[in-house]
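Extended Data, panel c. Modelled sequence:
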Amino acid sequence: MFPPKGRFAAALTACVMFCPASAAQAREVLVVSGKAVAKRDYRFVPAPGTADLGPEPRAFVRAASPVIARAATARGGRAVSKAIRKARVKQRISRSTARRYNRIHKLARGRYARLGATRKRELGGVIANLESVALRGQLTAPRMPALFLIVRRNAEFWPRSPLPASGGYITFRRSELLFEYYPGEGLQLQPLVNFKKANALHGACVKGDAPCRKRGLKLLLREMVRTSARRGGFRAWEYYFDFGGGSPPWISGMATATGIQAFGRASQLLGIDRYRAYARQSFRAFGTAPPVGVATSGPLGGTHYLQYSFAPRLYIINALLQTVIGLYDYAEITGDKAAERLYGRAEPTARRELPRNDTGDWSTYSFGGAESTREYHELLRELAASLCSRLDTKAYCGAARNFRSYTTKPARLELLGPEVATKGRDARVRFSLSKLSAVQLTISRAGKVVYDRTVTLRRGEQAFIWKPRSAGEHTIRLAAKELRTGRALRSRESAPVDVAAR
């Protein structure tokens, strides 16, 4: 199932996508230090598009339940206090920790009452998420460190800090954790972003293209362990905000597998065996059905690991490929047979599904879904190339070549007719087109343009309808400009046509 060790090592060195970020991919981050906030170009931040949750799966959006709608109320506040008391009575948290959590909640609600407009909405969204989890009886002791950290950081940030851009990253003094801004949901701890950062820190040490920060990597993984929770008997990195119909807490298969990959790589680099124990404790996510876990049956059969635990029929291909890569890398690094079995269940599924996400001139974001954006198309190409380098399998290597060609080659145009037409009668100017393009048809006679029209058309056989107004020889010219890559990929085709009198 796995390639020889030496070949894999060479492939992994060559395929640097999954030590995903480098010094060249610095990105602006807001750094909060007490009352001061500075904008800095930050190394080891995931490149745009590689760590996003993706577009919200709006097909799964449902109206907020009455409980969620009333979360930021006195009832919600009482539910949080009750959950803290319960954890204390069961001796799951200490007396000092219970006091600290109550102080954080009280501080956040107090600052919320004094804020206005946007800032009130953002901090209110974070408080509502905490209280909705409590109202459902899900504010357990293992979830409290992450949830109260999120509330605390938002209470610190919103009264005085500048408004970040949507999707912007924020970090705080003496911490390696990255928070991401989701409008209406405040600053959120995004597991995938942080595990991608851990992989980037590892990559800098291995590749030597940026300063090696082993202490930063240790601190980041320690903070990630502290903010993990127990879910269905396994360690989980949960998301604590509403997203596309998913109510907190929910998990992502891609984020979980990337975490497994990050712990495996760090254990090898730093010689810390307990990192492997943390990774193994999350394996059951891939053997548990949604909404608790992420294991489901794929649209073509086989085992499919979900991007969102709340969306069991949304098959996102880039998420599946990245999940397969994470499990493969961990098994290769550690020799863990359980990880190898998890990889082995889903890899054939990924191999079958990938060609069905190839439209012939672009990729789709999900099985049977809309076309990928340019960023997600490029991400899928890189993922297919990564699996090609690891497995040397036709399905992945061919897909990587196809997806690359769609972004580098202009549309192919072939004029199919007519060779003759009749004055005053409709003529179909037929042509074939290889990819989505803006197509311009220009018809001229004796050097004078008599017809000029531009439309956007998809691949396949297409036609313009033209009614000649005069007899004689005309020249048909077709031009196509590919639309999705942002590059000036143009092609042209021309031919004469003889227009007969009636």
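The first helix runs from residue 5 to 14. This feature is highlighted in the accompanying rendering.
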